[in-house]
Amino acid sequence: MTPPAPHTPSDPLLRVEGLQVWYGHAHILTGVDLTVGRGEVVALIGRNGAGKTTTLKAIMGLAESRRGNVTFDGRPIGTLPPHAIARLGLGYVPEDRRIFADLTVDENLEVGRQPPRPGAPHWTPDRLFALFPNLAAMRGRRGTRMSGGEQQMLTLARTLMGNPTLLLLDEPSEGLAPIIVRQMADAVRRLKAEGLSVLVSEQNTSFAAAVADRASVLEKGQVRWSGRMADLMADEAVRRTYLAV
Amino acid sequence: MSFLLVQALSGLATAATLFLVSSGLTIVFGVTRIVNFAHGSLCMIGAYLGWSLIERFGGSVGGFWGSVALASLGAGALGAAMEVGLLRRLYRSPELFQLLGTFGVVLVAQDAVAWVWGPEDLMGRRAPGLKGSVDILGQPFPLYDLVLIGLGPLVLGLLWLLFTRTRWGVLVRAATQDRDMASALGVDPARLFTGVLFLGSALAGLGGALQVPREAVNLHMDMAMIVEAFVVVVVGGMGSLTGAFLAALLIGQLQAFGILVFPQITLVLVFLFMAVVLVLRPHGLMGRAEDAPPAAAAAAPVLRLGNRGGWIALALLALLATAPLLVGDYAVIVLTEMVILALFAASLHVLIGLGGLVSFGHAAYFGLGAYGAALLVRHLGAPMPLALAAAPLVAGLGALIAGWFCVRRSGLYFAMLTLAFAQITWSVAFQWSGFTGGDNGLLGIWPSAWASGKAVYYWLTLALCAGALALLRRAAFAPFGYALRAGRDSALRAESVGIDVRRHQWCAFALAGSAAGLAGGLYAFAKGSVFPTLMAVSVSVDALVMILLGGVQTVSGPLAGAALFHLLESQVMRATDLWRLLLGLTIVALVLLFPRGIVGVLSNRRERS
Ligand SMILES: Nc1ncnc2c1ncn2[C@@H]1O[C@H](COP(=O)(O)OP(=O)(O)OP(=O)(O)O)[C@@H](O)[C@H]1O
Ligand SMILES: [Mg+2]
């Protein structure tokens, strides 16, 4: 059972209740509950294969068979197709980056562009190049010729072009050099300062600790613990149970 | 010299039309990953629409070009409707279903167009203002063709601008690479794809309508166009516009000069060119490995009949053997054809069910067997038993040669290569009239005197087909069959345990070819004649439909499918002229009802891979 979760927002931006997902016959998520409040950064933490990516995909409408209640800004989105969910202001940044390799940096950003959204920061390529200076120098370059870190930044920038109010960020630190990881953490904090809400999946608890207000710990397709990020970092026992390899 | 120049120019004019049609096909393929058989039909419809409009309004320059544009838009609208009604439901289906579904539309379009415009060839008006010719080094060259030559690069340029300089184009390219990611960014892929089908089909219609002043509009345009466009797209690299442009230029020249050197086999030249390109550059001139279509969908496991099944088969055989004693001559003829088709379908099942190799040209071997037997009778006066013995050998030899090329590729490319070889054999039978009788076929191929009774010939057919089927079934459950299936399910894993997958597939191709050849030989004597249509794409598709009807998962499925198919065909054809329309609608309904395969196993397997 999920222990009573302190500090859960009463009117959350995103509410997930009893989310279940199957891949073929494999029952991967057996009932995920979590919330993200307005302006909050929540970390979704769990071991390899715990179901973090699956959870984010299912929220985004990318899982083939899903069940459960997902509401975003008060609207049920559990049965909408991905593009409709994206147009409501949910931005998804996948773990495997998936930039459009044949398209230039500018074109990748163009794909993500959506009209300005009231209540969300408005992004333009120029503002994004200020946030990620590395990208500015390679606007005409194709995705095939970018490093992993550059690709990760482009993926994030491309999603921001949709002016989301909530960002689903899947393992942004995976496979990146420490210095780039620090830049990513900075970027996430800047986004929060701009008023964005973020649900970030991580195995790397130190990255999560650097950015998140709250955490939900996922194991075997369910949230087993949720609470303040600081409490999680202080609670050796919980981390040993759910996170130690 | 000037003659050669004019020849080259006329090759360029051909290339322009070819490029227009192929560019549409390659764009649609690039985005939807579906090879749209109906693309040729859209081109034909564009031509017919264009003909009607030009007859009415084509007197003035504006009227003519307005008619061409309108015809193109009409074809585009049909293509968009086809996306919404059919293709959209097939994006995640096995290739076999995508190809069959769009071929169903081809059949429907053939009957519909014949119904609206009639069966006669229609000669259109010349383009106003462009009726004359210009003088090129002393040789006259049609002005209209000169305009066409300019149109090719113009359209290429416009398409390039569309795909690189507009938001729509960028979104299409993004969705082409990663549909799910694009939709997660707020792009509605369904609307985008409808637009792409509109564009691609409008290009096909444009190519068709522009032909009106050049040549008669006819009911064979659809297959002729789709087959040539396939070649262009495959040679150019699937999904590549510049590749299609280059390939169209090359093939236009090949045709223009090929006709001077080998007037009998121009079609063969084109397909040989494609086969050679594919062997040398597996992804075409400008294609890239990652553009390659996914490997063929694995078929369902083949279920083994138990002992009971064996007894049932024997009982069925006994029942079939007594049939001539119980029913009349007409029924015996229908039964004879049914048994022959059952062997034909079962031979294709060896490739699809066991090997996971979807062949779109299996009729080639049926036809080779039939022609092999008929030619022996006609030119050497061979007796029937000798001719029947030669049929599987001729077809098997043909399959050995074609198979060597085909098994080098998998998935869609395999399907296209088999189709190309079937078109080669078809065009030889069609064009080499001195030897094969051409369009008139070969008549008077009757059985020997002792087998001339309908019942006796039926018993002979039954015995030979039952023997061949027993052999095929043995092969399926011998180590050979298991190796084939291992290669089908995972070529990599099969190779790692020491199975030479390609060699097994090659053997299977030859085996299936000779079995089809025996069926073809028997068919020739049953009908008393052979025609090039025996090798037409539609015959290959008939066999696929039989397998689809019966289910891929059992060895006996194709037999039941063949029986059902032939029964339906012979009954419906007697009742109506619209057999193709009905067959087409049936195929479309089948793939829509079972978009992921007749058996769920098929789709699950694909998901896991
Ligand atoms: N396409 C798929 N088909 C079948 N099973 C899958 C598929 N994708 C993921 N799984 C399984 O679902 C489970 C959860 O996977 P998921 O990718 O959500 O984990 P994760 O927490 O993101 O792991 P990681 O930290 O490695 O990214 C795993 O056991 C995985 O094997
Ligand atoms: Mg993951």
From TrEMBL, chain A:
Q: Which SUPFAM superfamilies match?
A: P-loop containing nucleoside triphosphate hydrolases (SSF52540)
- Asked if the Swiss-Prot or TrEMBL record annotates the protein with the keyword ATP-binding, the reply is yes
Which positions fall inside the ABC transporter domain?
Answer: 14-245
Keyword annotations for this protein, in alphabetical order, are: Amino-acid transport, ATP-binding, Nucleotide-binding, Transport
Q: Which GO terms describe its molecular function?
A: ATP binding; ATP hydrolysis activity; branched-chain amino acid transmembrane transporter activity
UniProt xrefs under SMART domains: AAA (SM00382)
Cross-referenced Pfam families = ABC_tran
The UniProt family comment states: Belongs to the ABC transporter superfamily.
Q: What is this protein's name? A: ABC transporter ATP-binding protein
Organism encoding this protein:
Azospirillum griseum
From TrEMBL, chain B:
Q: Indicate what this protein is called per its UniProt record.
A: ABC transporter permease
Q: Which UniProt keywords apply?
A: Amino-acid transport, Cell membrane, Membrane, Transmembrane, Transmembrane helix, Transport
**TM spans (from-to):** 25-51, 63-84, 96-117, 143-163, 192-212, 224-251, 257-280, 311-333, 339-358, 386-407, 414-435, 455-472, 506-526, 546-567, 579-599
| Subcellular localization | Cell membrane
Give GO MF terms, alphabetically. branched-chain amino acid transmembrane transporter activity
Q: Which PANTHER family match?
A: ABC TRANSPORTER ATP-BINDING PROTEIN (PTHR11795:SF442), BRANCHED-CHAIN AMINO ACID TRANSPORT SYSTEM PERMEASE PROTEIN LIVH (PTHR11795)
> Has UniProt tagged this entry with the keyword Transport?
yes
Keyword ATP-binding attached? no
> One GO CC term of this entry?
plasma membrane
Bilayer disposition of the protein: Multi-pass membrane protein
Please report which protein family the annotation says this sequence is part of.
Belongs to the binding-protein-dependent transport system permease family. LivHM subfamily.
> GO annotations under biological process?
amino acid transport
